[in-house]
Design a protein that fits this description.
Blueprint (H helix, E strand, L loop, with lengths): L2 E3 L42 H11 L4 H8 L4 H6 L7 E3 L4 E4 L10 E15 L4 E4 L3 E10 L5 E5 L5 E3 H7 E9 L6 E9 L6 H11 L18 E2 L4 E2 L5 E6 L6 H15 L7 E5 L2 E2 L28 E4 L2 E4 L8 H4 L3 E7 L5 E8 L2 E8 L5 E2 L11 E2 L11 E6 L3 E8 L2 E6 L3 H4 L4 E6 L5 E6 L2 E9 L5 E8 L2 H4 L3 E8 L2 E6 L6 E5 L4 E4 L11 E3 L6 E5 L2 E5 L7 E2 L9 E3 L3
């Protein structure tokens, strides 16, 4: 397996709203006085270029206010170096370059240029990773000390951390918050310092209490009341259970207590295998149960996972087919419409198709095997539809999205008078370019889109007045994918797969924070790969110029389907 890593509201009754502003969260809460730690001194006689390189590598370790990196500074520079800002993450391969001012080998001062490429930064307010692109070039001044050793006298403005060092000293953790209907837990990735490892659970809980990441506020909700804090650090008790003791929670309902437990237990599941006790002021938060494991909490996962019997569908030759090539029962499969693209609802009962009517496309929606009602939506082009989850088990969805003419995102809602189109504020997305593909995440809190060939992820923010906006768009892995993306889908709540026109990257798997990208096996696929679909627990399906292919994971060789499909066919799972 080849892995490439590069440089990205109201709550339930009885709970207060999440804070819209929070105090900065220290990247390393254990940081203390650097002088208290005997950081190793630089190698005697080290030259300026190597000194700067070793300084940058040492800056990846934030322990004790970057004590390891401070060993490379003069005493005066130690006092002035600003370590309070967000660490900037750069590519692991970087250069230290002498300047023209470095004339003699025995001079007393030097200036070295640190050159590299930006990957991103760690946002201090919420410890989320944010992509930051472009070239880096910053001067660093050096001088000889009393022992005739080179030391940095003019450090860079801030902290620069190589990606490999960042991954060694920081750990990705996944917090969980709710969609706005409190039906589904939604992942919200963050990064915390690895050392000391025993305090990671406490840091995870601290981040959870602060609320959703900045870019997801308005899209996610929390059951944790505003102002709640840890009564003491989260740690294992004498019985081996991890105790999370909260304070300033106030009066909460039993339903809110269950939701708080679910958020805490699910968020800690990635950093501990211990049983978890959730307490309020030292007492169990729930009278029903004292210790919890992930299997004990309700996550809403069933609402975001297609049922086992829903094996995917195809659009080929203007008809909707089953994956075995048989026509889908009903008008859409029998050729009643000139189907250009289609989407099946999460429960499998509903179908939305873009069908050609005369010279123009029209959206039609209805039961899978029924006549599909035409929506009053005039357009020259419509993207492949995408369904919102229903919010309740065994209840059909009443909302489907598409993009009109590459710019106007609309949500079509079932009403007593049929299906009605409503505008989505997608100005931040359309400013990037033409939208050719858009997929709602199966929890409904994010969209993934292809915009002028770029892979974009944005938050779905629903206002109290029923207005919906797409906010905080992020261009994922532009240095790798560029403008090559063609089709995409959600493999998981926090993972997107995209097909491209790049021979080296026919199918890519990308985490939603943009820090990690993985290449699916290139065997057997021919670019451009025009269609890709994915779903939790399913094989990824792709259609290229030679047919339909499937793969279980990034390292698997693509297997040809027994179903023969023509170039231009589309595969899709529910969602």
């Amino acid at each position: 397996m080849l892995v490439v890593l590069l440089g990205v509201l109201p709550v339930a009754a009885g709970c207060a709203a999440i804070p819209t502003q929070t105090s900065p969260i220290p990247v390393n809460p254990s940081a203390g006085n650097a002088s208290a730690v005997a950081a190793p001194e630089p190698v005697e006689g080290i030259d300026p270029l190597t000194l700067v390189r070793e300084f940058v590598n040492a800056a990846a370790n934030p322990e004790n206010d970057y004590a390891a990196a401070r060993a490379y500074l003069t005493p005066e520079a130690e006092k002035t170096w600003d370590t309070k800002g967000a660490p900037a993450i750069i590519e692991t391969t970087f250069n230290t370059v002498p300047t023209a001012a470095a004339a003699d080998d025995d001079d007393e001062q030097r200036t070295v240029l640190l050159q590299g490429k930006n990957v991103g930064r760690l946002q201090l307010e919420d410890n989320s990773f944010v992509q930051l692109l472009g070239n880096l070039e910053t001067p660093i001044g050096l001088q000889r000390d009393e022992q005739d050793q080179w030391r940095i006298s003019e450090p860079p403005d801030g902290i620069f951390v190589p990606l490999a060092g960042f991954q060694q000293n920081y750990r990705r953790v996944t917090l969980y918050f709710y969609d706005q209907d409190f039906g589904v837990l939604v992942p919200d990735p963050r990064w915390v310092v690895v050392a000391p490892s025993t305090s990671i659970p406490s840091r995870v809980v601290n981040l959870l209490l602060k609320g959703p990441a900045v870019g997801m506020r308005g899209a996610l909700s929390t059951a944790v009341p505003n102002g709640a804090a840890q009564r003491k650090n989260t740690a294992e008790n004498d019985n081996g259970a991890l105790e999370v003791d909260l304070t300033k929670v106030g009066d909460i309902t039993a339903a809110a207590a269950r939701r708080i437990v679910a958020q805490v237990v699910k968020s800690l599941a990635g950093v501990t295998s211990s049983r978890i006790r959730v307490l309020v002021e030292g007492q169990p938060i729930s009278a029903d149960q004292e210790e919890w494991r992930p299997a004990d909490v309700q996550t809403g996962e069933a609402l975001t996972t297609p049922a086992a019997g829903l094996t995917g569908l195809l659009v080929e030759n203007r008809r909707v087919l089953q994956v075995n090539g048989d026509p889908l029962p009903g008008p859409a499969g029998q050729g009643a419409y000139e189907v250009l693209s289609a989407a099946q609802s999460m429960d499998g009962s509903q179908l939305a198709v873009v069908a050609r009517t005369g010279a123009s496309p029209r959206l039609r929606v209805g039961g899978v095997q029924s006549d599909l009602a035409q929506v009053d939506l005039v357009a020259n082009t419509l993207t492949r539809p995408t369904w919102l989850l229903s919010g309740r088990q065994d209840e059909p969805s009443g909302e489907v999205w598409t993009v009109v003419d590459g710019t106007d995102v609309v949500r079509v809602i079932r009403t007593d008078n049929g299906w009605t189109a409503n505008a989505v504020n997608a100005s931040e997305l359309s400013l990037i370019g033409k939208i050719t593909e858009l997929r709602l995440s199966r929890d409904g809190t994010r969209v993934a889109a292809v915009v002028d060939g770029k892979l974009i992820v944005a938050a779905v923010v629903r206002g109290q007045d029923s207005a919906v906006s797409l906010r905080a768009p992020r261009n994922l892995q532009p240095s790798v994918l560029g403008t090559s993306a063609l089709s995409l889908d959600w493999l998981a709540q926090d993972v997107v797969v995209a097909s491209t026109s790049l021979a080296a990257w026919p199918i890519a798997k990308v985490n939603i924070d943009g820090l990690r990208i993985e290449r699916y096996n290139t065997s057997n696929l021919t670019v451009p790969v025009g269609s890709v679909t994915a779903a939790p627990g399913r094989n990824v399906l792709a259609v290229d110029q030679s047919g339909l292919w499937s793969a279980g994971d990034v390292g698997d060789v693509w297997r040809a389907s027994a179903t023969a499909v023509a170039p231009g066919a589309q595969a899709f799972y529910p969602g």
